[in-house]
Amino acid sequence: MKKAKIALACIVLGTGLFFLSLNQDKKVVSLEKVTINPISKGCVFMTVFGEESSEFHAKHKTPEKVLTSVSDGLAWLAKAQAPNGGFGAGQHSRQDIRDPHAVQQDPATTATVGMALMRSGSDFQSGLYTRELSKVMDYLLETVEASPNNGTKISDITGTQIQRKLGSNIDAVMVTQFFTNSLDYLDHDKNLKKRVEAALNKCVTKVQNLQEADGRTSGAGWAGVLQSGLANNALEAAQYKGADVDEEVLQKSRDYQNDNFDAKTGNADVSAGAGVVLYAVSSSVRASAKEARKVKEEMKKAKAAGDLPPEAEPTVDNLRKIGFDKDQALKANTSYNVYNKAKTVAQQSRTISGFGSNGGEEFLSFLQTGESMMVNQDNDWEKWYDNVSGRLLTIQNQDGSWNGHHCITSPVFCTAVSLLILSIENDIDKLVNLGQG
Fold first, then answer.
1. What percent of the chain has pLDDT over 70?
2. Mean pLDDT of 393-414
3. Rounded to whole angstroms, how far apart are CA atoms 174 and 110?
4. How open is the CA angle 3-290-213, to the nearest 5 degrees?
5. How far apart are CA 253 and CA 217, in angstroms?
6. Structural domain harbouring 50
7. Nearest partner of 351 among 270, 253, 429, judged by Cα
8. Which of 95, 143, 200, 205 would you label with 172, given CA atoms 20 to 30 Å apart?
9. For residue 43, which phi and psi values (nearest 5 degrees)?
């Protein structure tokens, strides 16, 4: 195995990386280079035989300004945590309240912050924000364990900004994703890991029971397509980690997202996305990424074996020639076309021109697009990252936070999602592995 050079988009996590050191007395922020986890490795044999792209793992240097931006955002978030370990976005009816300690804590926002802390380099044993992350875990476990086994809710909190804009069931969706992501860091505590696995399966059941006949997630808010897209992501990741996910439910979810985008015309169905193209296309890109990668890889193998000519394009006929049955070929080809067309639309300036007047929905949409590129081992992610990270830096507040200018205005939620975007390279291996199979 050889070391694959992976660019790191924020402080701490994974490979030789930058760790934030705070001198509280002098109030000086410094960056210290440390190694916390083993350096990510790429396999020579997988690279040579086309199973793993060496090009995809090429180093992408993270600007120092991004590292500073992330450290400022993390420091602000740490101060925003409530004594009970939770974080809150606040009520939809009081979007004017920006003080994180003047709002009620909610599971969706807390889970989002927890994921940002993990992606930025902290886990349950090490990292600058280990204590804060552990309190997040306690809050979410207690919330889920106290929820009824029947039904789809994990909390009786209603009317939050996140719920009104994404969907009333977004809490279970985001907490599912948090528990899944945390499993990589719990081998040191078997009892805690068992609790998390049980809570994860409880959340998975709730999310699956939320699915409507057409594949969308019920309880849609203003931009319900994002709730459905995030539910798809959560189930896909949970399945990869061994949770009890129904494959039919997951496939129906993917089909719903694919149906929202016409790959031939490049037009998106925005009826469930508040009329906003970005929301619809980013969800379609993310949901189709895994199947699109499978098509790309199988086509490459077939060409190398001489089963298809070098110039062959992915089509239903060609996929059937290399072993896909009719139904598989139709769905896989649709996913491939949707991904490649939708990712282009998602990055067009007219689609992302909302920067400078964004709600939390926009931040989530940018995150979905970036993660999809890593799932699909798409080298276009570097262009996406340079564009989005540069834009995020221009709208960061002086105190280190970000906030929305409409809809989801919460600085806690917007800061957490911004950090997930800026530090996305720290999860490059996880996202690549998620796209396998």
1. 71
2. 87
3. 9
4. 155
5. 8
6. 2-434
7. 270
8. 95
9. -85, 130
Non-local CB neighbours of 125 within 8 Å, separated by 6+ positions? 185, 188
Span 42-68, mean pLDDT?
50
State the average pLDDT for the chain. 77
Q: What are the C-alpha distances in Å from 274 to residues 211, 317, 407? A: 20, 37, 11
Q: What is the signed CA dihedral for 143, 146, 151, 152, rounded to 10 degrees?
A: 10
Q: Is residue 127 within 8 Å of residue 36, measured between CB atoms?
A: yes
Residue with tokens 């939809």: 92
Assign residue 297 the CATH number of its domain: 1.50.10.20
Neighbouring C-beta atoms of residue 99, cutoff 10 Å = 9
Q: What is the DSSP letter of 31?
A: E
Q: How does pLDDT run across 264-301, given as a tens digit for each residue? A: 555 444 444 333 444 555 556 666 777 888 889 999 99
The pair of three-digit structure tokens given for residue 286, joined into one six-digit string: 């993310």
Q: Report the C-alpha gap between 362 and 383 in whole angstroms.
A: 18
Which residue's structure tokens are 């929820």? 147
Cα distance between residue 88 and residue 80, in whole Å: 9
Phi, psi (deg, nearest 5) at residue 398: -60, -30
